[in-house]
Amino acid sequence: MRKVRWIGTLLFLSVCGLVVGGCDSAGQRDSAATAAATAFERLLDSDDAKGLCAALAPETRSELMQSEKSSCEKAIASQDIPLGGETRGTDVYGRQARVVLDSDTLFLSRFADGWKVVAAGCTPRPGQPYDCVLQGG
User: Fold this and answer.
1) What is the pTM assigned to this prediction?
2) Following DSSP, what letter does each residue of 84-106 receive, concatenated?
3) Which among 4, 83, 85, 120 is most buried, taking Cβ atoms within 10 Å?
4) In the β-sheet with 128-135, what is the strand arrangement from edge to edge?
5) Residue 109, strand partner residues
6) For residue 118, how many other CB atoms are within 10 A of its CB?
7) Paired strand residues for 96
8) pLDDT tens column, 56-110
């Protein structure tokens, strides 16, 4: 009988560990999305066009090159993306994230190689979608 209780206790603790681990992974996703947004801001501040292009989601990079009819590095340099300042909040919903900064909002998606920027230079519009300087299709 003791063996059955002990196995039951282990099973209970395993389930509790999975629940707590799930909560931790949500926090890790928030941190990773915030870190990606912060890295994007540093690249923006240093005018690192190659780094900025690498930080973009593939569809966003493609949309930018098509609309500007040039390489990503030349196209990103022509965008008027504001520096966002400090992070005020991060919301993660599955593989999507919104990072609100002092004077900008970034939208990101999680890919196999990490979080990538889908839209930047976004300002809210009451009752409508955000208006973004840079966004994917």
Assistant:
1) 0.79
2) --SEEEEEEETTEEEEEESS-EE
3) 120
4) 87-93, 96-101, 105-111, 114-125, 128-135
5) 96, 116
6) 23
7) 93, 109
8) 999 999 999 999 999 999 999 999 999 999 999 999 999 999 999 999 999 999 9
